[in-house]
Amino acid sequence: MKKNLSFFICVFFTSLCTAQTQTFNIKSYGAVGDGKSICTKALQNAVDACHKNGGGDVLIPTGIFVIGTVHLKTNVHLYLQSGAVLRGSGNLDDYETFYAGKPFSPVHKGMLFTEDAENITISGEGRIDGNGDVFFEMDKAKKLSSSDTKFTRQKDNFRHVDERIGDGPFVPKDRPYQMFVFSNCKRVTVKDILITKSPFWCMHFADCDAVRVSGIRLWNNLLAPNADGIDVTSCNNVIIDGCDIRSGDDAIAIVGYNHHFEIPGFNNSLHPSGNIIISNCNLQSYSSGIRIGFLDQNSVKNIHVSNVNITNSTRGIGIFVRDQGSIENITFSNINIETHLRTGDWWGNGEPIHISAVTGKDSVKLGQVKHVLFQNIICTGENGILLYGSDESMLEDISFDHIRFNLIDSKLNEVAGGNIDLRGSSLQPSLFKSDIPAMYAQYIKGLRISDFQLEWVNTRMPFFTNGIELNHFEDAEIKDFKGSASPTNPKAFKIYAENGKDFKTNSNNGVSTQNVQ
User: Fold this and answer.
1) What are phi and psi of 48, to 5 degrees?
2) In the record, what terms sit under GO molecular function (predicted)?
3) pLDDT digit string, tens, across residues 163-174
4) N-to-C CA span, the chain
5) d(CA 438, CA 382)
6) Domain encompassing residue 165
7) What is the pLDDT of residues 299-336, one digit of tens each?
8) Do 109 and 168 have their domain in common?
């Protein structure tokens, strides 16, 4: 009897909840899906009615509905029916403005701007289209300045193209900022939908808790600058899984910002963030497939990345400290990475893995990168792996286990190869000529490399040098390294270490040390 009663109560409450779910069709509020009419007010009225009545589904039916800025609210499920397109207006006047204060100028918010809300879902079989192509000069490429190229190997010819625009990026016009903003929200889900053509960052979660992004396709124009896929800033308890993301800028960025220049959505709050999972995703980017950190005011901890494919990207995985926030307890497992050199003004230079901790603000004490594990990684790249600490911030406890790295020749070596890119820092220079080992590590404490297999594939350039090179280090161990120096450089070594202490390796030949205790 108790079992039957429990079953009845469960069915009753399930039926009651189902019965109470209400649907608010935006056509009932005046929306016209002709691809021309501005439906901002109609969609906002539907959202407001849904929220006022305790929540439910806001339905985007078949058609093309054009909007400016709309605010989602607590307990609202935005559902896009098959054949539905929610498109951003091509007119900036249809978007709300935001002013971060001096020295910045006002900017425009994007399509969906949600603050201080809970239990929000966006899902369905339809598409959200940022209409980004309208906001770029697509026949022009953004060029590097002469101050950027001054110290490169190629000088003024660095990343030069003779005709058309090469790898871009497009020159941006005035444009709306993030397509989606969820700021200080809890329990947010975005799943299954197709998202295209963001004119700026696509999906931004700021100071949120309990976020799930699952099964989406996010396809931005690969030549669009700042068109990140997903940006997670100072959030906790985030899962990103089963997604296909193609973006001009970083495909997924996990950072600890509490503000960031003129960009809307930040709360200026200082708090730690973390507990983030990225799994089973396919990523492509003309910047980093996965970026962790940059000018972080807040520290970020406990990030776990697994079963991810990063293809045709300028950087594979990038971890950056430029401000007071630290980055720690990060694992990467079962990752495939493919990287290439680019023309044009993109950050990165073909590194499959890049970790750097160098000053970005002279007035703050730098945070630190520590406790990072790379396990079961397959890399194919046109530049080496870079681990670049500094005397202000040593990298600490960085481990590589079971790594397969094919360093391949590039058709762009003559115009882009043989350089290190640390832009986004206050170093002068931050983009400069350098020899390229397959792995270079400096200012690092506690480096562990085991079962690392390296192959140089048709590399022609003499700037490729050592297999692994260490400089200014403490406590480094390299075991079971199967590789060699670059075949193009007879003076190079399989392993070269200098200016360090506590160095161990089980390699018996091709090893050179200088000033190592």
Assistant:
1) -65, -40
2) polygalacturonase activity
3) 899 999 999 999
4) 78
5) 10
6) 133-434
7) 999 999 999 999 999 999 999 999 999 999 999 999 99
8) no
